[in-house]
Amino acid sequence: MFKRKISLFLEQWRDKPERKPLILRGARQVGKTTVVNEFSKQFDNYLYLNIERSAIAELFEKTDDVDELVRAAFYLLNIAQKEGTLLIFIDEIQFSPKAVALLRYFYEDRPDIFVVAAGSLLESFMGRHISFPVGRVEYMALRPCSFIEFLSAIGEEQLSIGLETITLPDALHSKILKLFNEFVLVGGMPEAIQFYSKKKDLVALGGVFDNLLTAYTDDIEKYADNKTLQRVIRHLLNHGWQYAGERIKFERFANSPYKSREMGEAMRVLEKAMLIELSYPTNATSLPFFQDVNKSPKIMWLDTGLVNYFAGFQKELFSSEDISDVWKGKVAEHIVGQELIALSFKVNAKRAYWVRDVRNSQAEVDFVSNYNGSLIAIEVKSGHNAKLKSLHKFMESATSTFAIRFWNQAFTIDTITLPSSKTYTLYNIPYYYACVIDKFLEKQIQK
């Protein structure tokens, strides 16, 4: 398995003096089990307890004594316990309220034991069927792989290191951009990346994507409490992909017969499952900023590779040199958004965009983000600076002194003079730096 950035965060969690049991959250098939299994190599002992196995579930039902449970687990799994550190991974924990309750006692009675828990349906069950011990666990979100991880997986380790350290020569721009365009088609789902790294066959990836969608659809019975909700979720999973990156209305979304209340409930279920994110706008141009949930959100799916396949964008992407030309720029916006969210392992991290709803003068900026105490505007668009009218309007009242434009060309810096005579710096950055934008900006600002 290729190295993933989350391994560094797991190591930081491991070394915390006040460490709590860790809950890994993420959509099905983003690699939670694989990541923890790889992490387990750093420990002297490892217990993988999958509660879908009845014998494992029974262990948690029969005792609430942590030491007894650990001893029984070693015997049940036929593993000899050695001296040293112990990592326990409780998988599919949502199926055992007793296992959830025991996390508290691991924290209070055996803080020397390293405990990680996860579950593919965890996000949907939380708050409805189970509740986690408040203040005695911590959370980490796992999302699809970034471009850096993609490069590592396909054998481009040196390019991956160069991207991570912001040391790539400009002479390699065309090569890296070509690889990034491949990443846009493959996406960040670990199974898709591993398949592509072995077969190098973009067309055959369809089978992987179909299997992933089948897995999500099969989970509907567990996500939904009633038949109507099941039908609405199925409609979303079958027809919602082509709206990725667009502002939407819940009422009759995707040409459905469903009302706003029904569609809103279904979308919130899929958002808890981390399959989608509803990104709401702000009209602020400085911090603090708040997203206006009364306005229309954009729908962002967990993975651009899935979007391109199910929305039918693949053929157009094959023949396009600039992903900003595909689907009115929504594909480029979506992959940049995916890379930006991959920067954070916080469960509550969300993307936001800016709107100016003034009669006869509407404007929209693709993303806004907090960087070192300033609200930074981010556009995803190629072409001449004259096309960045919305960005210029944002910067007229912004307190930040620079903005970002992701595009398909090499890195350049422009000084923009606005009609008010105010000036700002525009960093024109290749798409492939989105996954390391914080490091990229730090290097530029230090110059």
Could you characterize what this model shows?
It is a single chain. This protein is an alpha/beta fold and 447 residues long. It folds into two domains: 6-141, P-loop containing nucleotide triphosphate hydrolases (Rossmann fold); 205-446, no CATH class. The chain is built from 19 helices and 14 strands. Strands 7-9-10-11-12-14-13 form a seven-stranded mixed β-sheet. Helix 5 links the parallel strand 3 (86-91) and strand 4. The longest helix has 14 residues, at 173-186. The radius of gyration is 23 Å and the shape is globular.
Condensed summary:
The protein has 19 helices and 14 strands. With 447 residues, it is an alpha/beta fold. The chain has 2 domains: 6-141, P-loop containing nucleotide triphosphate hydrolases (Rossmann fold), CATH 3.40.50.300; 205-446, no CATH class.
Keywords:
five-stranded parallel sheet, 17% strand, 447 residues, 19 helices, alpha/beta, Rossmann fold, globular
- How much helix, percentage-wise, in residues? 40-55%
The strands making up the biggest β-sheet line up spatially as: 7-9-10-11-12-14-13
Q: What Rg do the Cα atoms give?
A: 23 Å
Morphology call: globular
Number of helices: 19
Residues in β-strands, percent: 15-25%
Number of strands: 14
Mean pLDDT metric = 93
Oligomer: single chain
Helix-strand category: alpha/beta
Low-pLDDT parts are none
Sheet with the most strands, sense and barrel status: 7 strands, mixed
Number of domains: 2
Distance between the termini: 37 Å
